[in-house]
Design a protein that fits this description.
By secondary structure, this protein is an alpha+beta fold. It folds into four domains: about 10-50, no CATH class; about 65-75 and about 170-320, no CATH class; about 75-160, no CATH class; about 325-410, no CATH class. Helices cover about 35% and strands about 15% of the residues. The chain contains 16 helices and 18 strands. The protein has helices at about 20-30, 55-60, 65-70, 80-85, 90-100, 105-115, 120-130, 160-165, 235-245, 265-275, 280-285, 285-290, 300-320, 365, 375-380, 390-415; strands at about 10, 35-40, 65, 75, 85, 135-145, 145-150, 175-180, 190-195, 210, 215, 230-235, 250, 260, 295, 345, 350, 355-360. Strand 6 (about 135-145) and strand 7 (about 145-150) form a beta hairpin. The longest helix is centred in the C-terminal third of the chain and has 25 residues, at about 390-415. The protein starts with 9 loop residues before the first strand and ends in a 7-residue tail after the last helix.
Length: about 425
């Protein structure tokens, strides 16, 4: 506050360009000559950059992801990726055996794997692991469309997030993944998975939160007579009831064939479609960058089912479960050692080394972002110096189809009026 008891002004100016350009600008200007933008920071965020919140009234009427889903968590953290994560499960089986091998001393174990540190006690971790014998080797989403294996031993992970991830580890389930904030200009930090995720799955600079669709009971705990072994939706019933009211349908815990009902998977697919609308992302980008996303209540049953159908298609494509992804649009025509050295895109070809390439790759697939990553590029870069096997070559071609089709489906979603006019 100034001497005359008035609040100080908050001024902002943004300059983009190369370093020399910025130096020249500073040399040629002063505080008095710069064309400042006057800001009026408002609660609760008090942003010190220019923001357009004109649409806040409409946006706030929608339901928020951490309000709809009762339980959520960020992804797990290992701090021991080299030990716990691998492209193949066979190597992890050997490590799992060594953890439980009482004939292998802690000193011998640590001489082999070198895990002991001031943050991790090998003796304590092995003792608890041997006592519980609860570790599993599972696949998980390391990055978009990049599934790897983890030796999920709770006592060896730095942050296991088991209280949430147990509902999707070896369970029939889906989960929405999004980041609470985004530093990217474009909004694309939304995904659906069917297995656990690593903390940075969705973004290299923001944590990834996972929202399971269903919650499963703890089978290892004694149940009371009125408890059920059935899974239950991880959904706020008040929001679900409001959706039901908007579309005039009855909510069911599991998917039914009757057209008079809708289920949790339909809500998930509806959300996925809305958050893949380029128009919606652009209109509300200032809000989608600063908190978990909101989605408008459906305007009617017809619009709801249109979006559910498209959201379902994108979900299945992203999980590489749709028959569409097996209709390859690319070729891998040159024989060689299949070793990835320096991936690059050139005239419709994605080279993995000097001579071998995937042909007829649409540029949109090569540049397409999901979260903070470009899957067609990231997948190959993470495999430098590795030899691609037959299944890897097929998998990469599925990724190209998935990204190309996602772009087309997003255009279709743009043709639907998501919000009431």
């Amino acid at each position: 506050m100034s001497k005359d008891k008035k609040l100080a002004q908050v001024l902002h100016f943004d300059l983009q360009g190369k370093r020399d350009f910025k130096y020249d600008f500073l040399n040629e200007n002063s505080l008095a000559s710069i064309a400042w933008n006057k800001l009026e920071p408002k609660a609760p965020n008090y942003f010190l950059v220019k923001k357009d919140f004109d649409e806040s009234g409409v946006y706030e009427k929608g339901f928020k992801m951490d309000e709809l889903f009762v339980l959520n968590s960020v992804g797990f953290v290992t701090s021991k990726d080299a030990f716990l994560i691998d492209f193949k499960s066979e190597k992890l089986i050997e490590k799992q055996i060594d953890i439980y091998n009482i004939d292998l001393s802690n000193q011998e174990f640590n001489d082999i794997y070198k895990l002991e540190s001031k943050y991790f006690n090998v003796i304590d971790a092995r003792k608890k692991a041997i006592l519980e014998k609860s570790s599993v080797i599972i696949n998980f989403f390391y990055r978009p469309m990049d599934v790897r294996y983890i030796l999920y031993e709770k006592h060896f992970l730095e942050r296991n997030r088991f209280n949430v991830l147990k509902h999707i580890i070896k369970k029939e389930n889906f989960a929405l993944v999004c980041s609470k904030q985004s530093t990217r200009k474009e909004i694309d930090n939304i995904q659906i998975v069917n297995s656990p995720i690593e903390l940075k799955f969705n973004s290299h600079d923001r944590n990834s939160n996972i929202f399971p669709l269903y919650l499963y009971p703890d089978n290892n705990k004694q149940q009371t007579i009125d408890q059920s072994n059935d899974r239950k939706p991880n959904l706020n019933i008040e929001i679900v009831n409001e959706i039901a009211k908007k579309i005039g349908l009855t909510f069911t815990i599991e998917k039914e064939t009757t057209k008079a009902t809708f289920a949790p998977i339909d809500i998930l697919d509806y959300i996925y479609a809305v958050l893949h609308s380029p128009n919606y992302r652009e209109k509300y980008k200032e809000f989608l960058k600063i908190d978990f996303p909101r989605v408008p209540y459906p305007i009617d049953a017809n619009t709801f089912w249109q979006l559910v159908a498209l959201g379902s298609e994108i979900r299945q494509i992203h999980l590489l479960e749709s028959p569409t992804v097996e209709k390859y649009i690319t070729q891998y025509p040159i024989d060689g050692d299949n070793v990835v050295t320096k991936p690059k895109y050139e005239n419709g070809k994605v080279f993995i080394n000097d001579t071998q390439y995937f042909d007829n790759v649409p540029e949109v697939a090569w540049t397409f972002f999901i979260g903070g990553y470009q899957p067609a590029q990231k997948w190959l870069k993470d495999r430098k110096e590795r030899t691609l096997e037959f299944d890897d070559i097929l998998h990469y071609q599925k990724i190209i189809v998935a990204l190309t089709q996602t772009d087309k489906l997003m255009t279709k979603i743009n043709g639907i009026d998501i919000e009431a006019k």
